[in-house]
Amino acid sequence: MQDSGAFDLLSSSFLANPYPTYARLRSEAPVYFSQEWKSWLITRYDDVVACYREPRLSADRAKAFSDLLPPELRPVAEPIVRNMSSWALQMDPPTHTRLRALLNQAFTPRLMQELQPRIGEIAAELIEQLASQPEVDLVKALAEPLPIAVIGELLGLAPSEWPLLKSWSTALVTFLGTPRVTVEILQQAAHAISSMEDFFRVELQKRRAAPRQDLLSNLLQASERGTILGEQELLSTCCMVLFGGHETTTNLIGNAIRHLYAQPVEVRQSLQESAKMSVAVEEIMRFESPVQRMGRLVTEDFALHGQTLCKGQRVFLMLGSANRDSAHFADADQLVLDRRENRHLGFGFGSHYCVGAALGRMETALCLSRLFARIPSLKLIEKEPQWVPNATVRGPASLLATTHV
Ligand code: HEM
Which of 55-94 are b and which e, b meaning 16 or more Cβ less than 10 Å from the residue's Cβ? Predict the structure, then answer.
């Protein structure tokens, strides 16, 4: 099916609640070309998995995507394209295979074990601070600062730098998920990425002079060994880890707080058992996926459900929709906190499967169990939060709560 706007994908009501639209797309137009997004949307679970395996879909898309912008905006996007073209996330083999092996070496189970106590401490400190305020925004006070602190520690960056890193990353996520790209949004994202590069150049220089025990020093050593090729790949990898490592986790924590404080207090108490908490976090990942869509580029024409996807076109694999597909999940629109069979696609699938999945899960579970233990009766003030106005990431823009009830 191909038309202009039958599904109203630019509307604020879609961004506030995309699930009814996803359900219609899965049933009426599972392979749908949206004029609004200038892209194909793949919404069924099995089709998303098939597309992840499809060799005629490439992850290498930054340049082609910028060609979809109006011609006058393309030069503005140039710093973003240059940087993102060297993200592992946006690469195909063999370059992806090389960089991915390096990332796998960095994100080991041992690192997760080592980080765990520190993450618990940071979460406890943040929760102690917010517990003293009668009214608090849990996104600003917890869901945002915790992941930025964790990724800051991992990369070995000073806490004084974290707010600046966060502001650059916000500019980038706004660009990546905005329903309508404007010149201001592009300029801010381009400025952010150039500033991030300048920042990491200086940090890497410091590590060259005096290596430390942090991810930046490890990446630098890899570049000296030749595993990373050149300065651009090094800077791009730093930016990708910084960005990928916290925007997503912020939204997972926000979604989890929102849904779990809507449950009776006994439910939260039962989740203090760590195995139950892990199962619940997976269900939040499925039910309210922090990453709703992932882009791919068609490199050769091919047909799917009678539609021809043509070389050069953009495709969105709609993870948030696949995760609500009732052909794959029983009671797909229900939050089932003890769901056992849960092969959700919230961390992607196949060779690009999220390298930080274990870290994101661990941060979220630790944060929630500390919060439930410290303020079990916290009350969210708004029934329905304002969502971040973004089609790529999904999470509450704010979560106002009273802590003293
Ligand atoms: C809990 C929150 C997270 C979610 C929902 C999430 C989601 C995703 C998804 C959907 C992908 C697949 C991309 C694709 O299909 O092309 C991905 C890849 C990736 N993620 Fe995450 N992520 C999270 C946490 C993290 C963390 C904590 C880090 C790092 C510290 C991280 C770093 C990455 C990287 C580097 C990739 C690219 C892997 C590759 O292309 O081989 N993510 N993530």
Answer: eebbbbbbbbbbeebeeebeebbebbbbbbbbbbbbbbee
Query: Would the CB of 240 count as within 6 Å of ligand 1?
Result: yes
What are the domain boundaries of the chain? Answer: 2-402
Entry pTM: 0.96
Fold (CATH) for 2-402: Cytochrome p450 (1.10.630)
User: For residue 316, what pLDDT is reported?
Assistant: 97
The CB of 395 under 6 Å from ligand 1? The reply is no
Please name the residue whose Cα sits nearest to atom 42 of ligand 1. 356
Alpha-carbon dihedral sign for residues 372, 378, 381, 383: positive
Q: How far does residue 246's CA lie from ligand 1's centre (Å)?
A: 10
Least confidently predicted of 79-83, 112-116, 197-201? 112-116
Tell me how far apart the alpha carbons of residues 352 and 91 are, in angstroms, rounded to a whole number: 9
| pLDDT tens readout for residues 341-353 | 999 999 999 999 9
